[in-house]
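INTERNAL AUDIT FORM
Audit reference: QA-55
Scope: verify that the stored structure record matches its stored sequence.
Auditor: D.O.
Record contents follow.
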Amino acid sequence: MGEQRDAIDDDLAAWLLAQPVFFVASAPLSATGHVNCSPKGLDAFRVLGPRRVAYVDIAGSGAETVAHLRENGRIVFMFCAFSGPPRIVRLHGVGKAVLPSDKDWAALHAQLPAHDGTRSIIVADITRVSSSCGFGVPTFEQFSPRSALPAWVKRKGEDGVREYQRRNNRQSIDGLPAIEID
């Protein structure tokens, strides 16, 4: 059933990278703030080391994860096996959003896939690796990536995406600061 590991070994890293979707959850410190859970895909996730992971954060409708990480750093990633043997893996950690203007950007960006519309890189130092059975998770035998987000980014163009971010990604739904666009 469930187990806890000290780190992400090579076998677990390969399994994580083989999953076509993962989920990211974060929360503000306020008891009345909104907990956020977002699905991610588009081959955006990478294991950078035994206790370090990152993913490409592409422009979208909200910036909750970025705002929560700026406030408190807490993050959890969840991966589910939707095909093959049942399995759920959670990576708890402390993260930050690295923006194109940050000194760490170039080195991190070089380790991740390139995606148009990238607004930040979410990087996390993992403090807990755990797995559970996943017996209640249904199987899905067919996956295909959606092209809607990359197509939207291409249609908007770089200036259009930046304007969208100015209007929609400056703060979280609870008013916390998120992405600062000049």
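Auditor finding: record pair retrieved intact. The domain at 3-168 is CATH 2.30.110.10 (Pnp Oxidase; Chain A).
Action required: none
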